[in-house]
Backbone:
């Protein structure tokens, strides 16, 4: 820590100005590396199990294009608006930042709503986590991503409250930046889910 | 649930354990109350974010777990001493070898290593703390409650009994219906989260907080091994997280990942487990190599031979450790091509390891060797570890492995690498860095007694097991008949185990004896050390370094001493030092984790959800916390430094 922790660098963007912020941002990148390993393991599990459907439905029988497309568009758009939020933050505009964060988390909430509806539909068709290895791995992989998005929404709300209370400071700016890294990462994971789970499932 | 299902009943040994647990708890509460130490406990330890104190707590926990795992080992040896023994029944034996393995790897070896790295790494790189002191406290407490949750299994609910590898389908609901394996899944998950955060914390610390002038290639070897170990942790532990989560789903919510029906695949567990499990053994052995490198170099009074080759071989081992996992189940039908690939990668690991052995030997060559206790452990490591390594290469040959697989030959092999590697390193490191933790040395005479008892006992215990394995004795069998001819070697092995136990008792006595009568370390540099931790006073001041040292070469402190001035502090240059505040929240969050875990084990979901809400509350409070720490004034630094004789 040392006095270096409070070493203030005016030339950097707001979120990078204190040494503490620089350490936290690097640490979060490394955490995302661990998350890559985590999702890679879940993807590997899914790919090993996805044709082992037992007595349950196959991926082709189950998946429906419409809901998945809506989820995809909502989440990809939210990644864009999250980028706009950080862009506004770099220009020092608190209102713009808050507005785009709000849009982002509403899009995220829309994504979660459609995902929950999709899951409920499957369960009504008799495709539950317990039905087959394919469905166990499907629900756990996609559900882990959904849980991450939900955590991201709560996290974003907490940061918005702090922005309203404390304004744009090096500390709140760093928090916004880190949650944005998290949000973009979830977007990337979704692209893999879309490709490896839904597209592959409907073609093979 | 009836009370006699909740508590484990019907075993005299368990009743004795119940009584001793209750008495110990009463004893601790009484002593803390009588000496009015509750406040001290809270302020100095439970809320601390100081890496040195956290390291000490890790090591104390590890020694306690070494006791627990050691008792398990002695119970197993007692049962196997003679044929057809009735000391333990088969179920009890299953539980004991499961907890022995799990505890020794995850709750003894790992925390011992992590404890030493907590204490030493910031000192070696000239830093005042780790990158995230608060997170560090949370890591420790998560490990600790995970360990406690695992340890109460044997009196509440029943121990896991499917081996430390918990292979499916045995570990599934069908064949292990009790709560034992729930404990395994949940307790390991909680402490695993702590370990992952430690990995991130120390990676950032080492990358970003080195003293000016300390380039990567000027880092002490122990710090190098920790850097690489952190990378292993960051990529291996998420795999364990997922594997344990899937196991938890299978056991609590009846999913079909590893089941026998509905498409489940039990081999998937074996693969996931060992994709984590093999890097895991390197997570405990690479830091050990680092510890031996420091000690050999110090007590041979020579610069480490082939520093660069050492670094590259660590990196090589780390890379290879991710592509050898199938060698743990050559016999489980992977096919000749796959087995050959993993056979070759496994044998390849012997190359960088061999490089390191020669590095140590050449460091010793023509050195002025001092035979301290720490050095004795390091010297004994080399031949003993080579025995373990060479038999490892024998096991690596897939075709031959069909003969050795799951026999006592394997047991002997991995105890030779894990004890002669990791445990010897922990003891060596403990003796070596003890003055930095407590300000006094461990008694050398008692230390040497521990060394000889333990090292000789270790060989007497495990060397015969190679032959027992070749004679056909398989692991995890709880008894055998007299006609097999295994009795004499089993008796010998038990004698060795008892000697190791006595060695451990001498070590514990040494800790007590040295606290009372041990030589106080007034200089801060009792071994004529080479690296920066010896530039501090013993025990180390709260802020580590009053002035951050400048590094010009490898063996930074040695260089300072050779330049004739040592590490002097210019009082004019002192500035107020910023330190992080203590916090009780990591401890409280971890308590919530304990109850959440306990709720999951027994499927008491209400308890689990309430506890989870407390965890979330703790995280929210942390997010809104804007405590910026505090400053230590220049006057206070001067006073501390004069007291320890480091100041002018």
Residues:
């Amino acid at each position: 820590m040392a006095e270096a922790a409070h070493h203030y660098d005016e030339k950097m963007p707001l979120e990078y100005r204190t040494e503490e912020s620089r350490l936290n941002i690097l640490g979060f990148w490394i955490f995302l590396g661990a998350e890559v390993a985590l999702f890679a393991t879940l993807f590997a599990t899914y790919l090993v199990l996805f044709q082992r459907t037992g007595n349950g439905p196959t991926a082709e029988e189950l998946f429906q294009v419409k809901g998945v497309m809506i989820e995809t568009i909502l989440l990809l758009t939210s990644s864009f608006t999250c980028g706009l939020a950080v862009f506004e933050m770099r220009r020092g505009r608190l209102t713009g930042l808050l507005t785009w964060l709000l849009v982002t988390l509403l899009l995220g909430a829309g994504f979660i709503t459609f995902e929950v509806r999709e899951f409920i539909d499957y369960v009504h068709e008799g495709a539950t986590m317990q039905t087959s290895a394919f469905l166990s791995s499907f629900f756990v992989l996609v559900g882990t991503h959904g849980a991450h998005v939900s955590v991201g929404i709560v996290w974003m709300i907490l940061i918005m409250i702090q922005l309203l209370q404390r304004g744009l400071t090096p500390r709140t700016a760093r928090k916004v930046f880190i949650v944005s890294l998290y949000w973009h990462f979830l977007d990337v994971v979704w692209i893999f889910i879309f490709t490896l789970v839904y597209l592959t499932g409907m073609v093979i | 649930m009836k009370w006699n299902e909740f508590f484990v009943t019907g075993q005299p040994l368990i009743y004795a354990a119940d009584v001793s647990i209750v008495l110990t708890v009463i004893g601790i509460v009484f002593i803390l109350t009588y000496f009015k130490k509750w406040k001290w406990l809270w302020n100095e330890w439970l809320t601390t974010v100081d890496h040195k104190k956290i390291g000490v707590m890790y090591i104390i926990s590890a020694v306690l777990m070494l006791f627990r795992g050691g008792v398990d080992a002695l119970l197993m040896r007692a049962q196997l001493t003679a044929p057809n023994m009735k000391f333990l029944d088969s179920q009890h034996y299953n539980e004991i070898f499961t907890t022995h393995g799990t505890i020794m790897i995850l709750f003894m070896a790992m925390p011992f290593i992590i404890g030493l790295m907590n204490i030493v790494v910031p000192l070696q790189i000239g830093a005042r703390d780790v990158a995230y002191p608060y997170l560090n406290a949370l890591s420790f407490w998560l490990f600790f409650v995970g360990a406690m949750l695992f340890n109460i299994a044997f009196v509440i609910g029943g121990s896991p009994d499917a081996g430390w590898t918990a292979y499916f389908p045995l570990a599934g609901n069908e064949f292990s219906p009790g709560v034992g394996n729930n404990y395994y899944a949940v307790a390991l998950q909680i402490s695993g989260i702590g370990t992952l955060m430690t990995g991130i914390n120390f990676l950032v610390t080492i990358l970003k907080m080195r003293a000016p002038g300390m380039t990567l290639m000027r880092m002490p070897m122990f710090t190098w091994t920790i850097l690489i170990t952190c990378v292993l942790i960051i990529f291996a532990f998420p795999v364990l997280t997922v594997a344990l989560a899937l196991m938890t789903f299978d056991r609590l919510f009846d999913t079909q990942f590893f089941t026998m029906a509905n498409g489940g695949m039990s081999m998937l567990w074996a693969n996931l487990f060992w994709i984590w499990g093999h890097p895991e053994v390197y997570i405990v052995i690479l830091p050990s190599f680092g510890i031996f490198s420091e000690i050999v170099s110090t007590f041979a009074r020579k610069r480490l031979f082939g520093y660069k080759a050492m670094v590259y071989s660590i990196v090589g081992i780390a890379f290879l450790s991710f592509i050898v996992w199938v060698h743990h189940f050559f016999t489980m039908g992977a096919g000749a091509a796959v087995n050959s690939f993993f056979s070759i990668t496994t044998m390849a690991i012997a190359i960088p390891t061999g490089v390191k052995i020669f590095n140590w030997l050449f460091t010793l060559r023509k050195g002025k060797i001092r035979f301290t206790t720490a050095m004795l452990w390091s010297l004994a490591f080399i031949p003993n570890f080579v025995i373990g390594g060479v038999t490892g290469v024998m096991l690596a040959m897939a075709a031959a492995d069909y003969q050795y697989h799951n026999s006592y030959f394997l047991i002997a092999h991995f105890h030779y690498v894990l004890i002669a590697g990791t445990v010897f390193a922990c003891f060596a490191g403990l003796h070596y860095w003890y003055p930095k933790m407590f300000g006094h040395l461990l008694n050398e005479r008692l230390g040497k007694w521990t060394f000889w008892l333990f090292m000789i006992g270790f060989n007497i215990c495990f060397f015969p097991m190679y032959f027992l394995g070749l004679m056909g004795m398989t692991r995890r069998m709880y008894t055998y008949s007299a006609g097999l001819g295994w009795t004499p070697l089993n008796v010998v092995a038990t004698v060795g185990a008892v000697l190791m136990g006595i060695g451990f008792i001498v070590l514990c006595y040494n800790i007590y004896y040295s606290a009372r009568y041990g030589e106080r370390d007034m200089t801060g540099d009792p071994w004529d050390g080479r690296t920066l931790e010896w530039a501090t006073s013993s025990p180390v001041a709260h802020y580590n370094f009053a002035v951050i040292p400048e590094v010009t070469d490898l063996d930074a402190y040695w260089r300072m001493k050779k330049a004739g001035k040592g590490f002097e502090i210019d009082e004019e240059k002192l500035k107020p030092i910023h330190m992080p505040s203590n916090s009780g929240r990591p401890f409280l969050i971890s308590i919530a984790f304990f109850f959440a875990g306990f709720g999951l084990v027994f499927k008491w979901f209400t308890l689990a959800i309430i506890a989870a809400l407390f965890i979330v509350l703790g995280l929210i409070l942390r997010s809104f916390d804007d405590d910026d720490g505090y400053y230590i004034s220049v006057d206070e630094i001067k006073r501390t430094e004069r007291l320890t004789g480091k100041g002018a």
